[in-house]
Backbone:
């Protein structure tokens, strides 16, 4: 039995290819797919590496910037510092990272990787950054720049940090993806 839609045309609901959605809904569908796969890969990483995707990103950034403060790390990641508190505490508790008082300002904490943490601060298969690396290696510089521009514009429209994102503020995290 063929289903007829409101226009009197046969329904496409049973076809394997989704009906045309238009630019906005199609882009949102792709963003949703990326978000879903990020979460799935993160869960798999926790099972195989002992770290979630966000935890691994923090390890990679602290490895790249030894002695970084949590405030600067939050700035690079475009999150509120309190968002990182749980991630940082879990990494410290597992022995991947250590907190030291800033010798110039005891109110600040500086973060460093431990030997165990440095062992995780390497390129590895089965990680989010490995998948991103494979994907961006197939792109031209112009395609990558365009994708970054679109994602930055969406983040700004969604109100990341309540202010405009600047490419130089994003680049350390994106640079990490390429290493």
Residues:
């Amino acid at each position: 039995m063929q289903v007829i839609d409101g226009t009197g045309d046969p329904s496409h609901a049973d076809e394997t290819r989704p009906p045309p959605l238009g630019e906005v809904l199609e882009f949102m569908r792709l963003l949703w797919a990326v978000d879903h796969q990020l979460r799935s890969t993160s869960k798999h990483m926790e099972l195989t590496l002992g770290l979630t995707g966000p935890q691994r990103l923090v390890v990679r950034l602290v490895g790249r910037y030894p002695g970084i403060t949590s405030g600067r790390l939050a700035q690079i990641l475009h999150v509120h510092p309190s968002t990182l508190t749980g991630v940082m505490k879990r990494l410290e508790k597992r022995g991947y990272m250590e907190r030291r008082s800033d010798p110039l300002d005891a109110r600040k904490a500086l973060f460093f990787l431990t030997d165990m943490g440095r062992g995780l601060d390497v390129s590895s298969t089965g990680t989010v950054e490995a998948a991103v690396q494979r994907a961006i290696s197939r792109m031209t510089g112009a395609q990558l720049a365009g994708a970054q521009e679109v994602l930055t514009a969406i983040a700004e429209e969604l109100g990341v940090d309540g202010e405009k994102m600047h490419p130089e503020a994003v680049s350390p995290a994106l640079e990490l993806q390429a290493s």
About this structure: The chain has eight helices and three strands. The beta strands are 68-69, 97-102, 105-113. Residues 167-179 have pLDDT under 50 and may be disordered.
